[in-house]
Amino acid sequence: MPLSPEQLAEIEELRANPQPTLRAVSAGMEQHLYKPLEVLDHGFVRVIDYMGDDAAICQAARVSYGKGTKSVSNDEGLIRYLMRHWHSTPFEMCEIKLHVKLPVFVARQWIRHRTANVNEYSARYSILDREFYIPEPQHIAAQSVVNNQGRGEALTGEEAARVLEILKSDAARCYDHYEEMISQEDQQGLARELARMNLPANIYTQWYWKVDLHNLFHFLRLRADAHAQYEIRVYADAICNVVADWVPFAFKAFEDYRMGGATLSTKALDCVRRMLKGEDVSQENSGMSKGEWREFMGILEN
Prior knowledge:
Number of strands: 7
Distance between the termini: 39 Å
Shape: flat
CATH architecture of the largest domain: 2-Layer Sandwich
């Protein structure tokens, strides 16, 4: 179960008691507050709190840049200008606090984004639930032959079944031993902070994660990308759905200039100019390495 009965009761209580406020409110975000978006087999993302909206971004920009933004006639145009020219500070005026339930190995990837405030469920004080991420068969894949950090073709048949059985049995056995080691009524047992070290990386943890919009966009640009690991990408996709309702102008600009755009090197730009002039440009005369050329062609073909 992604949410415990206690958490569900808390959500119902919070949503049943709205409070009047004078602060800026995003109607789109209000619809998401406290509600869980289920991710993977036991995980979720839900909004606990937020600050700011599209107007807050523009307000901060106009205070900062003054007359320099008067040529921009509306909020959407200003936000697109800020995104296009990499003016990041106004986007830092918006913040979001999320409650996330996720497998530990996903959390270890996620925590690499060090520009957020994080408070994680403590297995020193509490006993972790018997909940493990077990991939769907279509996500059980072999190592990629072209990418050292990615997966390749999906396993099938007996090989897929063999791997799934190992994942399930190892997780169950480790948790059984975890429970056996923890203090019981008839034995002294092991401290929780030590017993947890026997748990597998696919067990679920939870945390509160608070981040400003600028750094959230950086997270989403990397983790909602098609090349990101599936298990973290689905969380990023869920967050994208929330952000699109929270700050629609900013998210559309982010999609256009970051997710859908591309950064080209000096050599790549030179190749584009030569191609437009009708020149025959190849990897050999481009000045790029094979890897750079492959990525460049991938941008042009997509």
